[in-house]
Each structure stands twice: as structure tokens, then as C-alpha cells.
Input
Amino acid sequence: MRFSMSLFSSIGKKLFMGLSGLMLSGFIVVHLLGNLALLNPDRDPFNKYAHFLTHGLGNAIYVAEFLLAAIFIIHIVYAVAVTWGNWMARPVGYAKVTNAGGTSRKSIASTTMIYGGVLIAIFTVMHLYHFKFGEVIMYTTKDGQQIRDLYAVVYQFFGNIWNTVFYIVVMLILGFHLSHGVWSAFQSLGLNGRRFTPFIQGFGYVFAVIMGVGFIGLPFYIYFLTGGAQ
Amino acid sequence: MEKKNITIYVKVWRQEDANTKGRFQTYTVEDVNPDMSFLEMLDVLNENLIKNDDIPIEFDNDCREGICGMCGVVINGTAHGPKSGTTTCEVRMRQFKDGQTILVEPWRARPFPVIKDLVVDRTAFDRIMSKGGYISVRTGGVPEARSILVPKENADQAMDMAACIGCGACVAACPNASAALFVGAKVSHLGLLPQGRPEAKRRVDRMVVQMDEEGFGACSNHGECEAVCPKEISITAIARMRREFLKAAVG
Ligand code: HEM
Ligand code: FES
Output
């Protein structure tokens, strides 16, 4: 087979899904770390970090944004293509399906990847609209810089119970996505071993819980502990 | 102690041929000896049907001892029935309760069209095999033991992979109707041994292309295949196939 064709085989598609999924997982780790600054009652560090990302990196930020968008789109396009192919492979379904149990890793998460994924995709568009392209409030930091007060936008946003609930639900779904996704990605890359696979499955679960709890924690903290807009 | 005979209700898929719509029909089988095999119970049911001038239920089977891979059906939602590591012909009626209704369905996958009742056409597997599930040269008689060295671990793993009987339960149980475990087992079995290495790249390449062409789904790593496989072949086979495929793609 030609190399270019092998990328569109059932195995090649899953290779791209796995790689893009792991890269997105790497991105959300950095994103979560950045969010920690929102727990600081002083708004300057978070706002300065946000300002650094948008203004302090020159054109590199556009390259990074483009790459991230491309990875996200690759993941989504292949997700839809793979899932569609899988649905087409069984035109007549079973009257009854009993999970085999035993060594099977089939779970609610593994069977709902596309639904959770589509929700995450819709969420991502809304998320960019809420914050990146949201209201621009300028303020002066303690050391006299005139920059955007993204901190205020976030606290205002999570002063609303429905915004808070919506974010919490989607982040729960992201946790589910990762609980199957992380180990699955390694298996898709052909990385399987007697010692490695149990490890990466455990790691995947822990990672999913940390990401889920981490991203749920912030809106939860803002709404329930600080009461939102201050 | 004499075991009490039981009554079983069999709700089974009836379909005249590939082009006719099928439906479920329920039959009562009385006086089932719990020590009978599941297939013997179907034999009894078929004898009754023939006596009543009805058309017997068509199902595949041959060896009835778990080695030929012909007999697969889905019993109560699980390929080859509830017990793991066994084929349909190894299912015994003592696994069911008196008065229980047993749901029997054929394998369901686009590449496995129903021919009649519970019989499906599995020649898609043969076409995949014809693309490289073999070694092209005659390897002759048993060679001198030390002429080709095979690590013990490879020999063991190759044997585990060679246990595949091509029954199709992996496809039947997979939520995506993927044939990854079957092809993975074949690719691994031959790829782990020195005699299989020279053709390894060509083999995985052509077998995967054929697998995709037949219309099987992709592998989402659910692992249902491993859990229903009568030979308990591990999904490490699938990872190995992927590695071999990538090696073939880049090299
Ligand atoms: C932050 C966002 C996301 C992360 C971190 C992520 C991560 C992952 C990972 C690591 C995998 C495992 C890949 C594999 O099995 O090889 C995966 C699978 C999957 N993802 Fe995502 N994903 C994200 C967003 C999305 C979106 C937006 C969709 C959209 C439609 C999606 C749909 C899927 C599907 C359907 C699978 C399973 C593919 C299969 O059946 O094998 N994901 N994801
Ligand atoms: S009839 Fe041969 S394996 Fe069941």
C-alpha cells in the first residue's frame, strides 16, 4: 500500500485519533495549570498570564493556536469518519446485547465516545465565545499595566448557576472521555505490554479523575465558595 | 442422583434466505436433559419440527468439540453463550434454568450476511486469509532443532495466536463489528516466527486492506472480542498488528 493510503486505513485513522487525542490531553493539562491562577484572590497574576499568552509571544501564539485548532479538527474529523464506518459495519443489530464482562474494557465511556466528543466540540465553541471572544474589560494592575481583566469575566460568568452547572456537566463528560481515551490511545498506537498496559490503564483513570475534578473544581469554587462576581 | 429434565423456550431468528426479512420465533422444547449440549437441544427441536412437517432451524456446526469454529451463534446477547473461553457447541443445557427463554441470534455484521436462520456467510475471513494468512514457501519437514532459533517466549505467543479457529465471535461481539482480533491473531501468529518474517510487511498490508474492503468496523479497544474469544486470544494481538502495520507503512 502507498504510505499516503495507509493513513486512511482503519488502523491509520485510529493512529491519528490516538496521537491527536494525546496531544489534546497534553493541552488540557497546561490549561488546567493556568486555571489554578484563578484561585488566587489577587487577580493580577492570572490576568498577566493571559496577557502574556496573547501579547507576549509575538506571532508564536498564532502558530500555536493554528496547530491546536488543526489537532482538534483532525481528532473530530477522524472521530466522525471512524464512528460512521463502525455504525455502517452492523446494519442489522442484535435484539439483546449482554456485556461479556471478564477482561473486557467496554464501559459507558468507551461506548459513548462520539456523543461525549460532540458535546465537547460544541462546548469548545461556546467556551471560546464566552472567554476568548467575550467581554473585554480593561483595568490597571497594581504595577500600572493597562490590560484585560479576564479574571473578572470568569468570575462574572460563574456567578450564574446555569453557566456553572453546564460547565460542570461537560467537564464530567470530558473525564469519562479520558477514562477510556488515554489507555485506548496507547493501544491504538500499538503500545501494549504485559506490564505497560495495566499501568497505562491505571494512569488513564487517575488522569481522567484529575482532569475532571480539576476542571469541575474551578466553576464549583467560584459559584459555591466565592459567590461569583466580586 | 438423577437430574430432572427441564423445559426450555427457544426464541430463535428465522430467515428464509439472504434476501428475505427475518423474524424471531419462539419454540418450546420439553424434556431437555440438562447434560445435553446446546446443539443437541437444537437437534431435538429440529426433529420435532421435521415430524410436524415444519422447516428445521439451520445452524452451522461440525466438530462439536470446540476446534473447528463453525458453530457460533449469539446466545442471550453473548457470542458463544454466557461461559467464557468456550464455543457454542461446548455450551451445556445445565447452564440454563427450567422454563427459561433462550434468545438465539446469528452473528451480526455487514461482511457476515445471513444465509439462512442462524447460518452466516463468513467467506470474508477466507478472502482476508487469502491475502497473506500463510507462508508462501514449503517449509519442508521438521528441521534440526537448532538450525533456526526461536525464543521460547515467541514460540509460546505464536501458539497462543495460532489457537484462533476463525469462528468470528470477535466480530460478532465487537460493538463496531471489527475483525481486528482475527486479523491480529493471524498477523501475530506468523509474524512471531522466523519463517513468517520475510513476508511480514506484505502480509499485514494486504490483510488489513482486505479487512477494510470487506466492510468490518475499526477497533475502538472495547475488548469484548477478547472476553468472548473461545481461545481467549488477547488484544495484544491487535496492538502487534498495528505495530506491524506501521512498520510496513513507513518502510
Ligand atoms: C479536549 C478534548 C479531547 C480530548 C483530550 C480527547 C481525547 C481522546 C483520546 C485520548 C482518545 C483515544 C484515541 C484512541 O482510542 O486511539 C479519544 C477518542 C475519541 N474521541 Fe476524543 N478527545 C477530545 C475531544 C473530542 C471531540 C471534540 C470529539 C468529537 C467529535 C471526540 C471524539 C472521539 C471519539 C469518537 C473517540 C473514539 C474513537 C474510537 O471509536 O476508537 N473527542 N479522544
Ligand atoms: S462445532 Fe466445531 S467448534 Fe463448535
Q: What stands out?
A: Chain A has one domain: 2-91+103-226. Chain A has nine helices and two strands.
